[in-house]
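Continuing from the previous page of notes. For each protein in this section, the sequence appears first, followed by its structure tokens. Read the first protein now.
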Amino acid sequence: AQLRYSVPEDREPGFSVGDLAKDLGVEVRSLAARSLRLVSEGGQRHFQVDLAAGVLLLNSRLDREALCGQSPTCSLHLQLVMENPLQLHRVEVDVLDVNDNAPQFPKPEVVLEITEVANPGTRLPLEVAEDPDMGSNSISTYELSPSEHFALSINVRGDGVKMPEIVLEKALDREKVAVHHLTLTALDGGNPVKSGTAKVTIHVLDANDNPPVCDPPISKVHLEENVPVGTLVTKLNVTDLDEGPNGDVEYSFKTSNNAPGKFTKLFSLDPRTGEIRTKGPLDYEESSAYEIAVRARDKGSPAMEGHCHLRVELIDINDNSPEIVLTSLSSPVQEDATPGTVIALIGVKDSDSGENGQVRLQIAKELPFKLVSSFKEHFSLVTNGPLDREKASGYNITVRAVDLGSPQRATQKTFYLRIADVNDNAPNFSSPFDTAHVQENSLPGTSVFSVSASDPDEGSNAKLSYSILLNGMQDVPISTYFRIDQDNGTIYTVRALDYEQDKVFQVPVEVKDAGSPALSSTAVVHVFVLDENDNAPIIVYPSVPTGSAFHQTIPALAEPGYLVTKIVAVDADSGHNAWLSYQLQETAEALPFQVERRSGEIRVAQALRESEDPHRLVVEVRDNGTPSLSASVVIVISPEENSVQDFAKSLDLPKSSPKDTNLTLYLIISLVSISLVSCVMFAVVAARCL
């Protein structure tokens, strides 16, 4: 037999599909004995048999759309097998559709385009929504959200599918509303009704129905004249309500009779952005204002255009620095120039006008110069005080020109003024008094001393020559003793000097420059003659002719220490060269006498023997010079009995001779001269220190 059942697709597992035992006409208790079993076609077990109740149960939830798709009918075929006897029954289960699916559009958002000049009645087709359900559960109708310009129209195809369309009911204006947003809803016929929505965006395409508009149509811009090339003058504010090429504006200059060739050299116009920039330097003095006409044209078809008028007024600024012109310069200038002497003529100029072109000229206050205004924009630079080349041999004079603009502009010019020398400074010795020493007996031409002088002048005014003055300080002209090199100031001896004759010389030296008139100054060089051991000692007592001996008697019984006599000697030299020492020349036999080394006293050294023969002594007097010089005297001492002699008689010093007197006088003069020179030197040193 063939059984047929139906079941809605939304039933839960365990739902009773049909009573098999009843429909097959068999007892329920016999189903198990006859081994009733269910065989599904396709191997899927959507159903099961309850043998105890004899009913067909739903084994799993059914999905009609998954099982049969869009087929109008959906049936599942089963086979029931029973044994004893073997029987085969066919079961067909119809799966009934349930409204379990909502309509769904292929895209959640639909974008449409329509030109703003489209006529009412224009249709925009829409995509059909899909609903897996069938029959009355499928899509029933469409709805569109309210709109002033659009309505919904539904057409039915030959297969019964409903096709939605949007119909333009009112003319569009993109400049007012460029985009329209609508909602399309699809409704099915189920109970309850299910729906699906899609957003519909309609873009209104532009049409070239609006010309470019300049806001404001006439404008004015103030611009400083010194702006750099490329400075933005203004950006034109042009609007075109159209879009795309219809609203894409190009700019160009509209030439006129106002010097179009020159105008285009000064300004540039960006054809895309409408920016007007400077193209060349602007000069207020050349033109204070410019009139610019600009054409704004869109790219529509046909093209539409608007016009803008711009007036550019230049602001005069202080854009020119003063210029200094050195017309004349007198360099060098004499250092003895009187105040008010004109040094230079200076002119100034400024291309600006008004206060921007008024110029003040100035120099540093510490300079000995000043500026005197000759007439407009011309000045004289004159001396304002004494000049001294020795303090400043020249001046870097910086002249600064400042205009009265705001901000001020300044220019400076520096030139060098050289000061010419005048012989206004006498030569000057490093010291008015100098001291020199020279060895006596030095060869003629020996260098004694070099004087040094300086002159702050320059050139011939500083060329010095030295000379020795013949002022009669000595009895003999000083030039017979010394000479001087006129170029370097070195003093040389003319002849050998004798310390014993002249111990000190005052050499007056004059230095003179080569200026006109020549200036000079003097200094004194004290030349001290240094002693040399060139004089041998002279024995004053006893005075014995050369080759003779001095005889002296003493008591035969004279005791040791008895003063026999005293040797007196002098030396014309001084210092160590005049230090004398006395000694006995060695003999073959020992003598009972001795001589005091410093005093020259001869005394008995040991007791004399009776009837002793006379003794011959050679006493040598030697100075302390290098090399040492000496003199000697022979003394014969004869012991006599009953010879009594007192000390004064034994000395029996002779009266001083004229020669001895002269020697003493020389010693006194030397001491006095040395003392005077020392006092002078001390005074000079004290004065310099103070």
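Done with the first. The second protein uses the same format. Note its length before scrolling.
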Amino acid sequence: VSRQLKEEIRRGFARLEDPLAGLLAMLESSSDWKGKGQSLEYCITTELQLWIKAHPAVPQSGTKLKKLQARVLGMLSQCPANLLDPLISIYQLHTADRNYLLEHVSHLYLQGSYKEAAILSIKLKLQPDQDVEKMCTPLLLQDKANLVEDYVAEYPELQRKLLQTLDTWCDPSFSISDITRPYQGLSKYKPEKFNRRVLSKLVFRLLQRFNVDPALCPNVINQRHLRTLNYLFYKRFVEKTMTEENWADHIQSTVGENRWLQGHLVQSLLRHCGARGAARWAQHCRLPPDVLPRAVAEELQRLHIQDRVEEVTKADNYEARKKKDYYQLPIPRENIRFLQTWEETLQCWEKVLQPGQVVGVDMEWKPSFGMVGKPRVALLQLALKDEVFLLDLPRLLEQAEAEGEKEKLPYFIQMLYSDAAITKLGYGMSGDLSSLAATCSALKDTEKQMQGVVDLLAVDKQVDGLSPEHSHEERGVRQPEKGLSLLVQHVLGKPLDKTEQLSNWEKRPLREEQILYAASDAYCLLEIYERLCKDPESFGLGSDLPDSLVGKESKKPRTKKQLNKQEVPSPSGQEFQGPRMEPSSPPAPISPQEFSVVCDNMLQGLGRYLRCLGVDVRLLDNEDDHRKAAEIARQEGRVILTSGLAYQTLRSQVGEGRCFSVNCSKKAKEQALQVLKHFNVQVSLSDIFSRCQ
């Protein structure tokens, strides 16, 4: 809105005897203001709101104001959202008679204007005097769960009432049709969005958002635990990918003392293990005799004469078969160190935080099986060439807090991730770091400060073909490998044994199988990295792979000393020749209009962002081959923006400095800043949106 128009509007108010009545008369006689966007009526209303603040004598009171309030209330259900707050403020609706306001909202509700009734209730803070179930039911039937969340957002008591209502509806014996029947003729009615599955998801979302004790919703929690129970039986007895000890840990923590779940556990045991097997597990899980069927109770009597539960008979050649089929740690068992004290941990950090060190990093947490809250890291694994450190994070955080030094752990982890002289290897680092941030809030910005990291998940997508050692005959029939296990199989010949992946990593002491699994998960990253760097061509990768991985662009500018670093040690101690990067003066500044690029297909978000800043951008389509970027760059004189291993292929096909590797783990805005800084592109206000239609 121009300054001239604003001044004219304010002069108009000054001439009016009753500006409040004048505005109302204008709105009542106009229809434009009911549309979306900033209409002239909207501008006049907001200017009056500001004018009243500057002229405190204007607001009215008494009978005259009440009449104006009654007229405004009649308009509010039709007015656009951006006018609600200004009108409520101008006509002081918060001071109106509360019963009168409640009556008006009730009238809207009876008319079937459920959304409008809820929005007005929120604006006027009427929720404590309303029935939360009555107000929210039609909104849920219209798939307006976000409005329901807003309705209870500021009222803990209403949050609890709503959650208890939703939990009642999720009881398998409850008839949902009893709820939906009165609303059959409802406009925008979406019955497919009103079922136990959708409602239970909403319950979990509300529990997490409002930090409410899950015990308030026993039906939803029990149903989720039952699904977990069924999933665990599938993993153990159908897929056969969980060890007995691991499975038992999860069964006990899932079922606990819950009688209803104990009954389901016994029934599942009978189906999968027979009466004798069910009795053995009933004893192992300490199930009370009164939840056991007669056949299982009789078997349990026979078992009571034994001092302990029988171990499952394992084939004699089990360990030998595992060694034959799966990746094995090449370091002795005594070189895996489980650290629970700060004295041990400080010795570990001294070794890890050495310039030139290559570290395999991994993390483990207890599976949540869809329960409330983000997973918290229970174990941090750091693998060096000769040893692996397993850090008991909960114990170390607890000790540091007790000593008043809770910043000690985040300090070391940030030092590790931000040091460009230390190469950190990971697989899917982003997921690990978000769990780390949930464990320790001081680490929430670690990802933004990362330098010297190699995420082998990005390399995995480029690896071509299987390694020569891989043999189908040795594998036998088994679940197909995926993720890191598949990369290990491709590069090192044998997959990881993932039977401990879904372990309860919070339980102490850790079992021997868990310790070996955790150490292998981190150490295999060192071996993959070394193997790919030694022989990249046999995996379809560029010959200068070591340089491209270690020399990745990082957020912070490297020091002159780091830029001239010639060698990066491999895990085996061999030296890789790094890129020779002589310090040079920055390029001459250019405008976005003079800068033309072609973005590889994994950088479409970056391309769109640069185009908004006035850069001349060509985007590859998803199905295009990376090499098309080089073709376009040569024909049209563009700079190639790419990432990962495609950079190796493309930079050799264009002139020096005409191909740039972007950090794929960053968001589009951060990537754009990286590109603009590197090429010294100076963006002015007039460039922004200059290319947008």
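What the second structure shows: The first helix runs from residue 3 to 15. The chain has a mean pLDDT of 83. We return to this in next week's lecture.
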